[in-house]
Structures are given as structure tokens and as C-alpha cells.
Amino acid sequence: MQPAGRALIAALTLVALGACVPDPALFPTAFPAAAKVEPAETAYVSAMDGPFRIPAVPLEKLPESLRRQSVAYESGEVPGTIIIHPGQRFLYYVTGPKTAIRYGIAVGKAGFEWAGEAVVTQTKPWPTWTPPPEMIERKPELAKWEKGQPGGLENPLGARAIYLTTNGRDYGYRIHGTPEWWTIGKNASSGCIRMINQDVLDLTGRVQPGAKVVVLKADGTRSAGLIVPPPAPKKSKPVAVAPTPVVEPVMPALPLPPPLDPDLLG
Fold first, then answer.
1. Backbone angles phi, psi at 61, to 5 degrees
2. The whole model's pTM is what?
3. 127, 161 in Cβ contact below 8 A?
4. Does residue 40 sit in helix, strand or coil?
5. pLDDT of 83-99, one tens digit each?
6. Residues 143-148: contacts with CB under 8 Å, at least 24 apart
7. Spatial separation of the C-alpha atoms in residues 231 and 134, rounded to whole Å
8. CATH number for the domain including 110?
């Protein structure tokens, strides 16, 4: 075979092989290395964040299972995905094919559970919290915050809030911090996912806008679609009842006294 012919065959072979090899630009060269997780002894100390000093969390009162830690976890999701297991009270931030960072969380109380998929739209530091009307109806003392409670150490959303949407709609669910760290590991919220303030700071430093969020059902299975609690039935307004008129008792007429005896008047 002539040299020109061999060169042509070699060139065609390279083209054919190239068609079977995906463009490396379309795929990550490797999963990002699992980010280091700070030891619990320093992860939960008091620290300044903006104008506020976040209080320390006493480790002796925080079970080891609820502390931030790297774990073996196989999910089938790409790194950067958040997976929430309400039954376990754990949030997993996927870091690799078989690894994740696990955080202890508090989830919705009975009647406030939800499941499905969402997308991270934004995060906010020390966000304003506005209780929805139905919450104010349940707890009238919250009416003072109907225009919004400013961010701060007593704000229920804590140091950070991660805002979620599903199919472009905001259902009001958030992943957020909490000043009530002792509720972690419990069913304590009205549907949102609570985290220790130090943990939500760590998570928001990792998660990116557009990240996928998967909320499993309580048994750990995936929902075929979004499951949200039914709206609470509206309380019927009391019907005004006209007051019953008070009827004054009628006293019988007294009998007339007998006429006086004229002899007695003499």
C-alpha cells in the first residue's frame, strides 16, 4: 500500500475513534474531592457573623450522630446535590459517588411534612421572617411580625436561609438556621428544614444556585411528584346571634284595702 493510502486509513481510523469518545468538555474530569469537615470541637464554637455573635452549641448536649461529619453515602446524584431524609432527620450534601457531608436537622411536625424535588434559587444572610397568615391564625401572638421580623439572633430563620422552588413556584419551604439548636433531631418545624446556625453557614458556603434538592418521604423512598400538606381548613366565622330580650315579670295588681269604718274615724 502506498504511504498516502496508509496515512488516509490512519486518519479515518482516528476520526472513527473520536466519534466514540465523548467530548471531555461535556463532563467533569473527576468528582470534586470531599471537602474537609471541621472537627466538632471547633465547628460549634461561638463566632461572629456580620453584626451578630452566634452562640456556641454545647457538644455535651448535641448527640454525635447529629454533628456535621463526612459519611459514606451512595445516592446516584451528582456532587452538589442536597438530599433530605426526614425519617432519619439528616441532610446529605453529596460530595462524590459514595460520599457526602451529613448534617443533623429538624423537620416538619405531623401534618406539615412534604416530599419531592426542588431547586436552590438563592441564599440570604440573616433573613427577614414573615409568618404566613395561617400561622398567625394559629398563633395570634405572631401578629406583631405580620410585616416581617428583622434578621437577628432571635429570628426563627437563623443566620442563613436557602430558598427553594419547584417548577418555578415558591411553596414557602426553606432550609434555614435556627436559634433553637436543641430542636435538631426532632419533628419541630412547620415544614421547613432547620439546621444549627453553624451548620447552615457551612452548607451555604458549599451549595450553589440551581443545585438540586431531593426531599425523601419519611420511609426514605422517593416521591413520584411533589407532596405538600393540604391547606388547613378555614375557620368558619361565628354567626352573630341576636340577644334574647329580657322580659320583666309583671306583678299582679294588689287588692284594694277595705273601706274604713266611719265609727273608728269619729
1. -105, 0
2. 0.74
3. yes
4. helix
5. 999 999 999 999 999 99
6. none
7. 9
8. 2.40.440.10
